[in-house]
Amino acid sequence: MSWLQVVVLSVLQGLTEFLPVSSSGHLAIASRLFFDDDAGASFTAVTQLGTELAVLVYFTRDIVRIVKAWLRGLFSPAARDVDYRLGWYVIIGTIPIGLLGLLFKDEIRTGARNLWLIASALIVFSVVIAAAEYFGRQTRDVEKLTWRDSVTVGLAQCLALIPGVSRSGATISAGLFLGLERELAARFGFLLAIPAVFASGLFSLPDAFHPAGEGMSASGPQLLVATVIAFIVGFAAVAWFLRFLVRHSMYWFVGYRLLLGTVVLILLSTGVVAAT
Q1: Is 119 a residue whose pLDDT tops 70?
Q2: Is 276 contained in some domain?
Q3: Number of separate domains in the chain
Q4: Among the four 65, 136, 164, 192, which has the fewest Cβ within 10 Å?
Q5: Is residue 215 part of a domain?
């Protein structure tokens, strides 16, 4: 992997990780279109450590408050407030993707990165996002969040194992279908992603140097720089996206996904870019 590839792909990772457009799909498309090879699922997972670190920094106050409330609530039933419950919801919601991620780790690194699948996922899931925006009532705040919601959103997060779907797109859409406020759906989805993405990144770290499946190898300095770039760009992206969701819908991203998916399908059909 060249340094140009590292910089371009890590910037792209930071820009797209929190938007409902699929960062893994973008990295797979860009690396094949511009660099004639796949960046690989492991490189993607490792650079996601940078973007998730950005979430940790951005939500530091929320995370510290939730952790403290969860610890207090373990020993004092009277202290079991909404933050205590939220701590459990994050734990419960993380279980599905943890299990499925381990079960299908080989498929995620190989066959799931086919551009035909990614382009199709971009288009098909656009319909889901649009439907969530249209039918979502957005009447439920954090006080009304339940463990059933965490399971549902956690299961939706599993769809992010398919490049092209988008983790934030899946979790926010699930939240909207459940009637959650749009910003709450986004925040809860981001919190839910932290344990899963960090575990995935650390698990994939050795394979990023010497990919077991498809993908280019990267050196230690390259992975470090990529993670730092993804952190800086990702921090700006998550701050912008949450402000954007307060006043705007996700329809803006539906149009973009449809356009990108269609362009990729055309490029595949005409042989301009290879699917694998």
Answers
A1: yes
A2: no
A3: 1
A4: 65
A5: yes
